[in-house]
Amino acid sequence: MTDTTQCWAAESYHPIAAAALGEVVGEIIDHLGDEPDLAVVVSRGAHSEMMQSALGALEAALRPRTAPLAVADRVANTEASLTLFAARFAPSPTGTSPSVDRPGVTLVMGDDPLTRPVHGGDLGSPAEVFGGLGPLGEKDAAAWTTRIGRARGRLCPQWRPVGDPMVVTGVSADALTSLAGERATERLERLIGGLGDSGRLAARSGLMLGRLIDERLMDWSAADLVPTDVLGVRRSQGAVVVAEPIPLGAVVQFLVADPDTLETNLAAAATTLAPHGAAGAIVITDTPLPAIPRPGGIAASISVPVEAVIAPVAGATFVHRRAAALIVVGPTRHHRHDQRLG
Questions:
Q1: 200: part of which helix (H) or strand (E)?
Q2: How many angstroms from the chain centroid is the CA of residue 33?
């Protein structure tokens, strides 16, 4: 038995779902054997309709040690495909289960924030909580949770800060009336006027206000901000209307959506989390990616589509949109498989 964590990702574009499932399961067994510790399968296009019925066949053939995570991506006009990611964790030096011998990462998928708020403490684990919201194959599918001991995660936002940080100095119900001692609308208008053409275009496609969660930080980045949408203004009050309340005294900064920022942040996070390589990577995102950034030494990867991303900020767990969560699994394996990424 190998003493390192191993991951593999297999992808099939066979138009017949049963044949596609056979191809990806067979490739995983060829390279990892059966009974992996973790299995994640993503179906796209026409194959998404058969995901739930195929789970039984997948479990019978692969026999994963935990229930597989199955996500169906029903985006219209998407080519039918199946992607299967599997991991076999290294034996634990402490004799405990290799999936729980360190705090690591807890993965949560399929939850509903309207009926079950997501908090790290609810899971009875010191591990950071990452995951996604949205149906798992079927609308009423139950939530899926597992723990990965040898894993690290990071939030990768698809937004970038613009302007300067400000303190909220006036609030009224769902609006901010004053920012840094000035009417909020005047602050916003001056910001938009100074953005330039590309910045104004980005602001029109998605302007947000990010709140700094840990105000003790002296040096912070976009990943330390939790954004809420800017819904409009009330000029009579000089107020900026936001989707979620922000308390008086909070530190905030305006944000604009930027697809290029997401890819840059993913690549930077992969380099930071796995400077010497890793066995695998799971990217959970509510934004379609043309390819998963996989810098040197990350052997296998999978992109998991969700409706919103779950990731921690300053020790608390939040639901994010226009973002991705990168989870890096295990140290590197000495084999690199050049696969088509989905």
A1: helix 196-205
A2: 28
Per-residue pLDDT, 93: 59
Read off the amino acid at residue 210.
G
Q: What share of the chain is helix, strand, coil (3-state, %, to 5)?
A: 20, 40, 40
Q: Which residue has 């591990």 as its token pair?
A: 127
Other residues' Cβ atoms within 10 Å of the Cβ of residue 342: 22
Nearest to 281 by CA among 5, 2, 7: 7
Domain ranges of the chain: 6-156+274-329, 159-257
Residue written as tokens 């840094």? Answer: 180
User: Looking at the DSSP assignment, which residues form a beta bridge with residue 211?
Assistant: 226, 252
Alpha carbon distance 159, 7 (integer Å): 31
Q: Whole-angstrom Cα distance, residue 259 to residue 279?
A: 27
Q: Are 125 and 149 in contact (CB under 8 A)?
A: no
**14: burial class by Cβ within 10 Å (0-12, 13-18, 19+)?**
middle
* pTM tops 0.70, yes or no: yes
Distance CA 280, CA 6 (A): 8
pLDDT digit string (tens) for 288-334?
Answer: 776 665 555 788 999 999 988 999 988 888 888 889 999 999 864 43
Q: Is-contact 6 336, C-beta < 8 A?
A: no
Per-residue pLDDT of 161-172, as tens digits, reads: 998 999 999 999
- List the end-to-end C-alpha distance of the chain, in Å, as a whole number: 30
107, containing H or E segment: strand 105-111
Q: How many CA atoms lie within 13 A of 250 on its CB side?
A: 18
Three-class SS state of 32: helix
Segment 270-294 mean pLDDT: 81
CB 13 within 8 A of CB 78: no
Q: Which residues contact 218 (CB under 8 A, 6 or more apart)?
A: none
3-state secondary structure (DSSP) of residue 165: strand
The CA-based dihedral angle spanning residues 35, 38, 41, 42, taken in that order and rounded to the nearest 10 degrees: -170
83 touches 41 (CB < 8 A): yes
